Amino acid sequence: MSDATSPGELLLMGASRLNRLQIERLGELRVPLTLRQYRILQRIDEGYTSVSDLSRLAHRSVPTVSESVDGLIKRGLVVRAGSPADRRAVVLSLTPAGTKARKAAERCLADLAASVFDSLSAPKQKVLGELARKMYDVSGSAMWGPDA
Fold it and tell me: What is the number of domains present in the chain?
């Protein structure tokens, strides 16, 4: 990085570092997870219990999400069962180990996020929070359109 690095480039470089840091921290947990695995556990816990729902939310193909779900099932973190409401449908749910892993990952990422703000004053935290929200919205619009 040089003094001529633009603020936009710095933002992208910083986002990349933060993403890598999240990946590393989740990989160090007692039950290591990838970011995708964590998001799947999180979404299932929020009530998104089908692979098709998960794939729509993640903007990923059904086979891609299904592969991740299969890995979570093999590790005993998720179970697949028939739906009581529709015998053709399959419902995903977290096992107790899956719930524990999700909570550990959530705490890990919350601690990481808090550490990013620890060295900032309250006014700077407010400004960074507002900018972070804006960048989140802008990147979502760029990826999926303005209504995403």
Answer: 1
**For residue 35, what are its two tokens?**
């970011």
Q: What is the DSSP string of 20-49?
A: HHHHHHHHTSSS---HHHHHHHHHHHTT--
Question: Does a structural domain hold residue 125?
Answer: no
- Tens digits of residue pLDDT in 91-148: 999 999 999 999 999 999 999 999 988 888 999 999 988 988 998 899 889 888 877 6
Q: Of 104, 73, 105, 103, nearest to 91 (Cα)?
A: 73
Q: Which domain holds residue 39?
A: 7-117
The reply to whether 98 falls in a domain is yes
> Which CATH number does the domain housing residue 12 bear?
1.10.10.10
Residue 141 lies in a domain: no
* DSSP type of residue 52: H
82 phi, psi to nearest 5 deg = -70, 150
Gap between the terminal Cα atoms of the chain: 33
Q: What is the pTM of this model?
A: 0.88
Sign of CA dihedral 70, 106, 12, 60: positive
Alpha-carbon distances, residue 81 vs 45, 51, 86 (angstroms): 15, 12, 11
